[in-house]
Write a structure and sequence with these properties.
With 85 residues, the chain is mainly beta. The protein has no helices and six strands. The protein has a six-stranded mixed beta sheet with strand order 4-3-6-2-1-5, with no helix packed on it. The protein binds zinc ion. Zinc ion binds next to loops.
């Protein structure tokens, strides 16, 4: 029987890369972005996301190092790996 949220074991825990305050090329505001794909964010790679302000798909390259967090915090914008726009 499960009660409440299960405690994530270390093995198999969701890991995400958190990029805080990266400026958004779509709306110009900073957002907190999260990438939960395999592997760390690559500074040379492009990532796609949907801007929560404009609702448009935009692309960014991480300019700063990302922090690894156990899971994406609420309210972050999800990044997905993308080809160069
Ligand atoms: Zn935006």
């Amino acid at each position: 029987m499960r009660t409440g949220l299960p405690k994530a074991p270390l093995q198999g825990a969701i890991l995400a890369e958190l990029l805080k305050g990266e400026s958004c090329p779509s709306c110009g505001q900073p957002h907190d972005f999260c990438f939960a794909g395999a592997g760390p964010l690559c500074m040379d790679a492009w990532y796609a996301f949907t801007c929560p302000e404009t609702g448009e798909v935009a692309f960014l390259q991480p300019l700063t190092g990302a922090a690894t967090v156990p899971q994406p915090p609420p309210g972050t914008v999800t990044l997905t790996a993308a080809d160069a726009p």
